[in-house]
Each structure stands twice: as structure tokens, then as C-alpha cells.
Amino acid sequence: MKKLKIQDVISVGIYTTIYFLIVFLCMMGLRFTIPAFNSILIPGVTALFAGIVYLLMLNRVPRFGAITIMGSVMGLFFLVSGHFPLSFVPNIICAVLADLIQYKTAINKKLRTYLSYIVFSYGLTGPVLPLWFMKNAYVDSLVARGKDAAYIESVFAPVTTFSFYLCIFSVIIGGIAGMMLGRTLYNKHFSKVEDRSYDSTASEF
Questions:
Q1: pLDDT at 39
Q2: Helix-strand-coil percent breakdown of the chain, rounded to 5?
Q3: What pLDDT is attached to residue 101?
Q4: Model's pTM, two decimal places?
Q5: How many CB atoms lie within 10 A of CB 203?
Q6: Is 200 helix (H, G, I), strand (E, B) or coil?
Q7: Sign of the CA dihedral with 19 first, then 112, 195, and 11 last
Q8: 36: DSSP letter
Q9: Buried b vs exposed e over 105-141: b needs ≥16 C-beta within 10 Å?
Q10: Whole-number Å distance between alpha carbons of 175 and 181
Q11: What Pfam families does the annotation carry (predicted)?
Q12: Rounded CA gap, 62 and 51, in Å?
């Protein structure tokens, strides 16, 4: 496995920007359509639409470390944009695990791409997991940011056992469907254009 080069890092930056744009669009779409559950469904809905970006990055930058960089950049965004202080941790952990699955395991190539993408997609649960597991600390962080009681109550209104499982399983469903959609788009529009592939043949995506 070759090491990342400067041009590889630049390419990862481009795909990370596109991925961030998809996250933003999904967030805005959910905010206007399902406002009560928008933050909880962002990871799953993003996974549904970002599969093609993930595949393009794997093809353009078939190097261990590329996935980690993409996830880490997203984590840093959460860190500097006022989210709960530990929101960035899942992004980094999931990105590293996805990298290991994609490039350091010997399982079926197609299966490992699905698995790595699903694991990577769980990184976006970073801002919402504290709602269930670190409620008091999350409330304190909101108070420190000047949020009033009404706002805090609205944040925790959808936080139930059902919504937790909804968040977790939506990522699996969104990841599988998103990768299927991504493979279809890739093979239809990009496989004949891209001449570099992490697994030698685009059809194995």
C-alpha cells in the first residue's frame, strides 16, 4: 500500500468538501421536513446520498489514510463549530476503523466497501450520541452557550429509546442503500472515465 502524496491529500480535501456539502444539504432538508428528528436522522440520510462521493474517493485515492483524513476533517469541523466538545471523537474513531476495514482486511472487496462505508457513516452520530449518554454535560454545554430552557427542552424532546434505535438502524439502512445507489451511479457515469481503482476493476465496487 503506497503512502499518501500531496496530490492525494488535495483530492481528499476536494471530496471532503463535497461530502460536507451533502451533510449540509441533508441537514437543511430534514430541518424543513422533519424538524423534530432532523439531528437524529442526519447520519442515516447523509449515508443514503453520499455513497457516490465515498466511492469516487476510494477510486481516486486508493491509499490507507484517505478515509481517516476525511473523517478527521469532519470531526474538526464539529470541534470548532460549537458542538458538544466530544462530538468529534466518533468521526475520528469511525474513520480509522473504516480505513482499517477497507485496506487492512482480507474479506470480500465488495463487502468490505459496504462495511467500511457504514462504519464511516456512524461518525456523524458524534453530535447526537451525547443526547442519550451524556445528558447533564450536554445541558451544561448548552447553558454555557447561552441557550434558554425552552431551547434545551426542544433539543431533548425527541430523545427516547425509540429515537436512539432509529438513529442507529437508519445509518445501516442508509449506508447499504447509499452504497447501492453509489455503485449504480459510479458504474454508469464514472467507471469509464476514472482509470485508477483501489481494487483494479470498477465493477467490483
A1: 86
A2: 75, 0, 25
A3: 96
A4: 0.87
A5: 12
A6: coil
A7: positive
A8: G
A9: eeeeeeebbbbbbbbbbbbbbbbbbbbeeeeeebbeb
A10: 10
A11: Trep_Strep (PF09605)
A12: 16
